[in-house]
Amino acid sequence: MRWLAFLLVPALFAGLALSTGALPFKLGVPGLCALLLLGMLPRSPEGRRRELWSVIAAFGMSMVGDYFLSSRRGHVHYFEVGIAAFFVAHLGYLRYSLLNGRLHRLALVVLTVVFLPYFALALAPAIHGGALWVAVLLYLLISCIGLAAAVGLKSPAGAKGFYVAGIGLVVASDTIISFNEFLHWRALNGWILPTYYLAQLAITTSILLRSDRRPDSRTSPESRSVSQSPG
Fold this sequence. Notes:
globular, 76% helix
């Protein structure tokens, strides 16, 4: 639980990013979350390191996406580059989920039933340019798959709850961005960054909570054989 105290630092950066809008603070939130996970690598078993690297890479790509979206004024293709970076970030979150669970099919059906009509009826007519149309569709699909995989995570209830909430908040933040960018509906714009920063803090909290279960506390083959012996 001692690692959770360090979350106060990226949380502070999130507050400063919201109050100042300064790019270093914006990049600092995923960057500091990534540093926290990097600090866990030396004491983690090899299989666990693969999982951690998936989320570390996702946070790194989130920083890339943050930079391009925050600096896109006057740059024609920065928005598309930002989408691509966050798409790769979703792949990192997805890999973590699948290494620790499976795709939840019912959740995927529900999400696609909600978001595919939203894309077809609302977003597609508002998007001008074939490349951007494809990029937004692919991003929407990876978002649905990633959230469905988070629901299928096999982890203690607390850790799973934070992870599902984190990925859900990423999807919520992206959905509000789509309202703003393509539908020009800006009533919820004030929630874009708070939900995004809360998402990164929730995902990191989930991994830190799960790390408290020491690898040596898992039942070994020998102990299983003893526990399963008669009497």
